[in-house]
Specification:
The protein has 13 helices and eight strands. The protein is of the alpha/beta class. An eight-stranded mixed beta sheet has the order 3-4-2-5-1-6-7-8, with helices on both faces. Bound molecules: adenosine-5'-triphosphate and magnesium ion. The site of magnesium ion has 4 residues, from helix 3.
Length: 291
């Protein structure tokens, strides 16, 4: 895909981002991290979060790779890469052993690269079954990319098939979007069981990046009640940042743009910039504790 000139320079959006979010790349010198955005539940905001967290990191000149592990390919189109404009997807790397460096695409943001998905990836669920160490294919592919990227963000499909298992095996942490609705807690219990099983068998080092409350509608008592229940139940693992229900976030993917390029002044943009800041701050805190 052709590389377009970075709109942040021309529109001065980048300085707005820095001033409003406090993100500062020059203070940033952390180890590379792989974060899987996952929840078996459908439609909770996984892809929206993967796209907009990646873009919010990239705009601060943090080298970021967005990995689209969902055959629906919504993260791919959501950053402006159209179906049929590229020849090789993650399918080719996972199943046909194409080096992952050969499939990466540029996006409209200079510091954001994409490992694209297409419908072939649905076949990978079946074709990987016969491979040895089939849950470790993505992990092996991404190891070589750690030197190139500060953050690798993986968008998972809404199921617990081999694609998601590959993502959770490759990841250092899992970020779980949870929609602020009545059955939110039920899904969380299920997810917790999954996490325990993955840690026991495939990836003992998988940590919880955090639970992210999404599509919050402050006007309803129900949403407020759900937030309070989830904070009681999950404690400090819930991000401070809450993503509001915001129509601009729902519109942006149809223009193939992350929210910061579609409407930088929207509440959706502000909230995802805050999320990026929180993720970075948490990592800095952990790095200080390790030192
Ligand atoms: P799937 O499980 O199918 O992969 P998902 O968990 O990735 O879904 P998204 O695709 O991110 O969920 O979101 C589902 C729908 O809700 C999309 O149409 C998206 O544009 C919309 N949406 C997501 N977050 C918000 C928000 N904060 N405000 C308004 N609409 C949102
Ligand atoms: Mg999705």
């Amino acid at each position: 895909m052709a590389y377009f000139s970075n709109p942040f320079r021309s529109k001065n959006v980048r300085s707005i981002v820095k001033n409003s979010s406090g993100l500062n790349c020059f203070e940033f010198n952390l180890m590379s991290k792989i974060i899987a955005i996952s929840n078996q539940k459908g439609g909770v905001g996984k892809t929206t979060t993967a796209i907009n967290l990646s873009a919010s990191l990239a705009v601060s000149e943090i080298q970021t790779l967005l990995v689209d592990m969902d055959p629906q390919a919504n993260a791919t189109s959501g950053v402006g890469v159209k179906k049929g404009t590229f020849k090789r997807s993650l399918y080719h790397s996972l199943v046909l052993q194409e080096p992952i460096g050969n499939i990466l695409l540029n996006t409209e943001l200079e510091w954001l690269k994409l490992a694209p998905s297409d419908r072939n990836l649905a076949g990978a669920e079946v074709e990987l079954i016969d491979l040895e160490e089939r849950e470790f294919c993505l992990s092996k592919l991404l190891q070589g990319q750690r030197e190139m990227f500060d953050y690798i963000i993986i968008d998972c499909p809404p199921s617990l098939g081999l694609l998601t298992l590959n993502a959770l095996t490759a990841a250092d942490s899992i970020l779980v979007p949870i929609q602020c609705e009545y059955f939110a807690l039920e899904g969380v219990t299920e997810l917790w069981d999954t996490l325990v099983r993955i840690r026991r068998s495939l990836n003992p080092n998988l940590s919880v990046e955090g639970f992210l409350l999404t599509m919050f509608d402050e006007r309803t008592n129900l949403a407020n009640q759900v937030v309070s229940d989830l904070r009681d139940f999950l404690g400090a693992q819930v991000f401070e940042t809450i993503i509001p229900r915001n129509v601009r976030l729902a519109e942006a993917p149809s223009y193939g743009k992350p929210i910061i390029l579609y409407d930088i002044k929207s509440r959706g943009a502000e909230s995802y910039l805050n999320l990026a800041k929180e993720v970075i701050e948490n990592d800095k805190k952990s790095a200080r504790q390790r030192a």
